[in-house]
Structure prediction request, 142 residues.
Amino acid sequence: MVGEKVIIKVRLSMEDAHYAGELVNGSKMLDFFGDVATELLIRLDGDEGLFRTYNQVDFLAPTYAGDFMEYHGWIEKVGNTSRVMKFEAYKIIELARDKDLAASAANVLNPPILVGTAEGVCITPKECQRESVLEETLIRTV
Prediction:
């Protein structure tokens, strides 16, 4: 499980826009990193666990309503109850926003744009860890 990636794909909606010009608040990225972390913990421990802290967060490029996003995450290190995770957010499609094109025109971004990164620590209390899930995961990765 250490190093194995989980990826969530979503489209940012008008409801996600928070600022002028349909700009999406950077905290939305953290919401999706939390979802990625939850899946990683379930796959490792059989439990959703708890997000404890972000050690670092970088917002690298803006996102807007209509953007298609990928949120990547993986576990870097497994402790007794702690799990250190890394996250990356990519914009993979954006609206064209060109006055000469239809309002529905969009561009596939090749390569995708890295819009944010983070490192965080999650905790799965010992009593919530299902050893059978952890053992099975470790056996698959050996």
User: Anything to note?
Assistant: Residues 6-136 form a domain with the Thiol Ester Dehydrase; Chain A fold (CATH 3.10.129.10). The chain has a mean pLDDT of 91. The radius of gyration is 17 Å.
